[in-house]
Fold:
Amino acid sequence: EAQVTQNPRYLITVTGKKLTVTCSQNMNHEYMSWYRQDPGLGLRQIYYSMNVEVTDKGDVPEGYKVSRKEKRNFPLILESPSPNQTSLYFCASSSQLVPGGRTDTQYFGPGTRLTVL
Amino acid sequence: AQSVTQLDSQVPVFEEAPVELRCNYSSSVSVYLFWYVQYPNQGLQLLLKYLSGSTLVKGINGFEAEFNKSQTSFHLRKPSVHISDTAEYFCAVIRGGGYQKVTFGIGTKLQVIP
Structure:
């Protein structure tokens, strides 16, 4: 079954404690993205990746890092989490340059709810 | 830079009535436009997209949207809603050549009333 998986699904942590949210896709997609969703702000793109070792900033990259060492995985790293990073995080992958393009298949993960105390 | 404005944060509508969810964008170059739906406690699902060509695009679940370049709008419509359409709807834009860099609107919650 084609899918994007995220782990953990729920996480409560404390300020300053480094954490990683994993994202993995089984569709051999080249393109992957991370978003955060906050009430009243919609979804905002954090980082995206066009291929292995190719990543770029979205609209809200501050406080986050990503890596793309292999095609299937795109982890999101919070080196020193702060309460303003409390949010719902989504990972997505797509097969084409324009996500949702003519013949694209685009998938979103189930989300990771992060609380930073 | 690109931006998206969804003018209504919540839209209540009676079952079987028509609905229009409004979306306006700003971009100095050509754009690709999308509508996504998010059901409660789920991820996003692509409803429909405008890439080029016909300005009226049809998507899943009976939804359609019209790209209006002069008004910089991409409103989503459905002629008759069902209870199962209750969800949050997001408009999104990609600047031409911007590829994977996506900007979303803040979302519109559609509440279908029985």
